[in-house]
Amino acid sequence: MVGVSRRGTGIAYWAIGASAVSFVGTFGLAPIFKSSFKEDADWQTVYRDLVASGGVPSVSPAAAYGKRKSAVLVDVRLGMKYDALHPEGAISVPLYIPIQGWSPAAIIRRLGFGFFGIYGTQLNTEFTQQAAEAIPKGREVILLCENGGSLENKSGTMYGFQSRSLKAAYFLRKAGYSKISYVKGGIAQWGSDGLPLSDGAQEEEDGDSGSGKQWGLPELGFARRR
């Protein structure tokens, strides 16, 4: 019993120590690397630019699915999420990627995300280049992320609701794309509406993004489509 008690105490102290290191890294050392955390454009800048340029139209998941042959449906979530499950007919151009390298700034960034129990990511600096390789400039582009976001303000908000779809729209407009919209409610709404979802392995096997396997999202509370 004494041995078990000591092991339990040791684990508790280890957990406390790890939390302390993470806390210090987040709130003590992070300011040193503040410039490394700064993105090309923060959300307030993105919001003001999008509103000033007329906003970004939203489309329902059903409308986006109906346009999958004429428009380019672009999933801007992490590549691993796309590979696990994505809207049928969508291509992957991730706006964010896992934190790269082990520089001091990258380590502090990992600690900062870890402290809050969040998977660490960074802006994909090759996003517009990858988009240019995958999306012809003249095509309509429909963006999709987890929840869609909004430029509309409700009581108590000043800058809408941030999302990766809207941030991606900002960067694509800067790159010369003009026919851009985003899926309202994102993949969460897509799944709730019972629209087809594919996994990367199935699409690769079929060789056609429009013939992928249909899945539900049980981890998000969605039922399998029948």
Automatic annotation (TrEMBL):
Domain Rhodanese: start-end pairs: 67-199
Where exactly are the transmembrane stretches of this chain? 12-33
CDD domains, per database record = RHOD
Ordered alphabetically, the record's keywords are:
Membrane, Transmembrane, Transmembrane helix
Region (Disordered) spans which residues? 197-226
SMART domains in the cross-refs: RHOD
Q: What is this protein called?
A: Rhodanese domain-containing protein
Which cellular component terms (GO) are annotated to the entry? chloroplast
**Pfam families reported in the protein's UniProt record:** Rhodanese
